[in-house]
Design a protein that fits this description.
Layout lengths: L1 H20 L5 E4 L2 E4 L4 E2 L1 E5 L11 H14 L3 E4 L9 H9 L3 E5 L13 E2 L1 H14 L5 E8 L11 H17 L7 E6 L7 H5 L12 E5 L14 H8 L6 E6 L11 H5 L8 E6 L12 E2 L14 E2 L2 E2 L5 E2 L3 H10 L8 H8 L27 E3 L9 E2 L6 H13 L10 H23 L1
Parallel strand pairs: 4-5, 4-12, 5-6, 6-8, 8-9, 9-10, 10-11, 11-12
Antiparallel strand pairs: 1-2, 2-3, 7-17, 13-16, 14-15, 17-18
Helix pairs in contact: 1-12, 2-3, 4-5, 5-11
InterPro entries: GH, Glucanosyltransferase
Main location: membrane
Membrane topology: Lipid-anchor; GPI-anchor
């Protein structure tokens, strides 16, 4: 009997060890950089992956086919704009993790996104955002979440900026109250000259870390064709981002005029000119559609009126064997193959990261119309157009937004929040220790 136990226990311990070792390392934001758990700096090589309009992370078989091609490219990240939080994402997220690929997911939808023309931040939006967070916080390869994509597109839309920040503040408060891992919360901005760099600085300048983004990202298509660091304007993007206190990266890039795309901007982003400031880039986009930005095709376009297959949406097949678009796919693959920055070790960087700060932009007449000293909107408030600063709102509860969000989520869950360990690695070791203790206790009782 004892010999049987001696044979079984090592296999049980091996299974426990495998469960721990196979877990993908989480990503965290420290100062202006991202890091793996082991302290190695993380740079994003990503693809915008909205294969299907509703949710591309529900078809495990298709995910695996696409992931094989993503790995061939050298991608370590995808960005997904829309998901269904009630769907089952385990298969795709596990397959991505197995390939070392991380997810950056938008929390909003077309019906809950913050609008620059009449910005508001209400309970419906908050509930939708947190439903997506609830679903994807379960996966350790969720690298970050975004509270908006190109909400502000004109200088006249600057009044929406406080609402973007209010959403980030409340999502972060909810994340922390629930005891979730500190998944970074950020925003993806349109590259608008009239807003640059005021929006960028406003969203990252607060000395109160609960009222600023965890990261900022930019959709930029300035580097087109045979260009250069100076000609493209990347030198100005670099100047504006120097000494920025939170991570910054390109959440969309890859100008397609003229064709073919050569992705030469990647050598600047991952090279000496920008690599100490920027944390990488996400290429737009995976599937070839009418806009001709695709890296992959599943077949020729089909007239929507004649399309009968369920795999066809908006005139394009979205399932099957991913075929590279030539020569764009190989051009990106060749670029990324030569760009492998090592960055800085967290142990060497951590002390200097605590002193990073940037001045908040002042409000200007006829331009950036946001008072940086004004309180952020509270949950349930709506901007009153034509009333000046973002402090003028209506319909609010009068309580702080953080408090309102915390109360509503606590009531909704109907349970106290668990105390979390100091780091994801600690949590896994603690869980392993508990399981192992239980096994040994059961063994002792059995003997």
């Amino acid at each position: 009997m004892l010999s049987s136990l001696a044979f079984s226990v090592p296999f049980l311990l091996a299974g426990l060890q495998a469960a721990t070792v196979n877990a993908v390392p989480t990503i965290s934001a420290v100062g202006s950089k991202f890091f793996y758990e082991n302290g190695t700096q993380f740079y994003i090589k990503g693809i915008a992956y909205q294969l299907t309009p509703s949710d591309p992370l529900v078809d495990t078989a298709q995910c695996k086919r696409d992931i094989a091609r993503m790995s061939e490219l050298g991608a370590n990240s995808i960005r997904v704009y829309h998901v269904d939080p009630s769907a089952n994402h385990k298969g795709c997220m596990t397959a991505l993790a197995d390939a070392g690929i991380y997810l950056w997911v938008d929390l909003d939808t077309f019906t809950t996104q913050i609008e620059q023309t009449s910005p508001q931040w209400n309970q419906t939006q908050f509930d939708r955002f947190t439903e997506v967070l609830d679903e994807f916080q379960k996966y350790e390869n969720t690298a970050g979440v975004l509270v908006g994509n190109e909400v502000l597109t004109t200088a006249e839309g600057s009044a929406a900026a406080p609402y973007v920040l209010a959403a980030a503040r409340d999502v972060k408060a909810y994340r922390d109250q629930k005891g979730y891992r500190e998944i970074p919360v950020g925003y993806s901005a349109a590259d608008i000259a009239d807003l640059r760099p005021m929006l960028q600085n406003y969203l990252g300048c607060s000395t109160n870390t609960s009222e600023r983004l965890d990261f900022y990202s930019l959709n930029a298509y300035e580097w087109c064709g045979d260009s250069s660091y100076q000609q493209s304007g990347y030198n100005m993007l670099q100047k504006n981002a120097t000494d920025y206190p939170i991570p910054i990266f390109f959440s969309e890039t890859g100008c397609n005029t003229p064709k073919p795309r050569t992705f030469e901007d990647q050598s600047a982003i991952f090279g000496d000119q920008m690599v100490d400031t920027w944390s990488g880039s996400i290429i737009y986009e995976w599937i070839e559609e009418t806009n001709n930005y695709g890296l992959i095709s599943y077949g020729p376009s089909v007239k929507p009126a004649t399309a009968t297959a369920t795999s066809i949406e908006d005139g394009f097949t979205r399932q099957g064997t991913p075929t590279p678009v030539s020569p764009d796919f190989d051009n990106l693959k060749s670029q990324w193959a030569t760009l492998n920055p090592t960055g800085v070790a967290l142990s060497d960087y951590k002390k200097s990261a605590t002193g990073l700060s940037i001045e908040c932009p002042a409000s200007t007449s006829g331009g950036w119309d946001v008072d940086p000293s004004a309180p952020l909107p509270t949950l349930g408030q709506t901007y009153k157009k034509g009333s000046g600063s973002s402090a003028t709102t209506s319909g609010g509860s009068g309580a702080s937004s953080t408090g309102a969000s915390a109360t509503s989520s606590s009531t909704k869950e109907g349970a106290a929040f668990a105390v979390s360990a100091s780091s994801p690695m600690t949590e896994r070791l603690l869980a392993g220790s508990i399981v192992l203790s239980g096994m040994l206790g059961a063994l002792a009782l059995w003997l």
